Amino acid sequence: MSAGAIHSYADARRLARRRLPWMVFDYIDGAAGEGVAEARNLAALRDIILEPRVLVNVSQRDLSVSVFEHEGRVPFGISPMGMCNLSGPGADVMLARIAAKHQVPCGVSTVASTTLETMIEEAEGHAWFQLYFSGDGSGTAKLVERAKAAGYKTLIMTLDVPEVGRRPRELRRGFKMPFKIGPKQFIDFALHPQWSISSLIAGAPDLANFQTPEFTFDRTESRARADWDFLKRLRDSWDGNLVAKGVTHVDDAQRLREEGVDAIQVSTHGGRQLDAAPPPILALQAIRKALGDDYPLFYDTGMRSGEDVVKAYMMGADFVFFGRAMQFAIAAGGRDGLDAFWKLISDEIGLTLAQMGRTTIPGPAARF
C-alpha cells in the first residue's frame, strides 16, 4: 500500500503499525496506564455535535488563521514530539518543511532527533521551541539561551510532566532513549527490515540537542522541582512569546495568565501522563469560559480528523496542533504520506465548514 491509501487517521496508523518495529510503534501509540484518559477524551471529541446549515453560499472557504507571528494558511500546526526520526529517517525535517510551506508553527521538542538550530532553519522561522524542566534547572536555563541564540521567538514550557508517566506498552518493549539493544529488540528490528535498513543508512535516531558535553539530558530524571518561582524566572529571562503547555485546570489557567504567560496550550500529553486525567477537550471549553474570548488558547490531544479540528475551535481553541498522527503518516509513506495526510485534514476542514454553512474557521461568536 502507498500514501494514496491514506484516507483517514486509522489508515495511517494501520500502515505505520505494519512498517514500524513493535518497540517504536508502541512508543508512539502508547498511553499512560490502561489508556483510559486517551479513550475518554476521544469519546468526548466524538460526542461533540456540529450543526449543519443549508442554503448558504460556501463556494469560497478560507482556512487561514493568524497565530502570533504566523499567518497560517491552515488552522493547525505540529505539536512538539520527541524522537520523531523514529517514525522515518528525516521525519523532523519533513515536519519543519511542511510547516514552512503552510506558514504554521512546528513545535521542536527538547528531545528532538534533529538539532533545534537545524529545525528553525528548515522551518524558515516557523518553529517554536518546547522546553522541559529537569534536575535543578541549570540545563534548562542553558537551553533557553540556546533557543534565543538560534532565533526562536516562541517558547513552549511543558508543565504536565513532573515525572514521566508510566506507559506499559513501551516498558514491555524495553524502550529507552538512547536505545539499549537486547535480544528482543534485535528480533524486533530483524522482522522489520525496511525500517531497520533505512534507519541504519541514515544513522540511528538520537537526542540531537545533547551531543556536546555542556548539554545533557536524562529522560528519567525528575522534573518535580519546577514551581511558580521557576516560571517567574523563566518569564523574566524570556522576552518572546511564552506558552504553557499541558494545562487542564481553570485555576492554573487563571494564574498562568496573571503571571504573564502569553498563551495556554490545553493538553494531556496525548493521554500519556495521567490515566485518570479529565478530557482536555472539555477542559478547553471550561478554561475558555473562565478566561473570556480574548486570551489565546491552543489545543492538542486526540486530533484525528478535520472535523476534530473544527470541534476544537468550537470549544474555544485559537489554534490546534496535531501530534502522533503526523508521525504515523510519515511511517506509512514518508514525505508522500505526510503530504497526503496534511491534504486530507485540510480537505476535511473545508468540507466540515461547508456542511456547517461557514466560510471561515469558527471564532468567538461561534463557540459553544
UniProtKB/TrEMBL annotation:
Which keywords belong to this entry? Answer: Flavoprotein, FMN, Oxidoreductase
Recorded hits in PROSITE patterns, A to Z, give: FMN_HYDROXY_ACID_DH_2
Instruction: Specify which residues bind glyoxylate according to the UniProt entry for this protein.
Output: 27, 132, 167, 269, 272
List each copy of the FMN hydroxy acid dehydrogenase domain by range.
1-368
Name the cofactor(s) required for activity, per the record: FMN
Protein name from the UniProt record: Alpha-hydroxy-acid oxidizing protein
User: Chloroplast as a keyword?
Assistant: no
What family does the Swiss-Prot or TrEMBL record give for this protein? Belongs to the FMN-dependent alpha-hydroxy acid dehydrogenase family.
Lineage per the UniProt record: Bacteria, Pseudomonadati, Pseudomonadota, Alphaproteobacteria, Rhodobacterales
Name the Gene3D superfamilies for this protein: Aldolase class I
Q: Which Pfam families match?
A: FMN_dh
Taxonomy, superkingdom: Bacteria
One GO MF term:
FMN binding
Q: Does the keyword Flavoprotein apply?
A: yes
Q: Where, by residue number, does FMN bind?
A: 80-82, 109, 130, 158, 245, 267, 300-304, 323-324
Query: Which species expresses this protein natively?
Result: Roseobacter ponti
- Catalytic center residues: 269
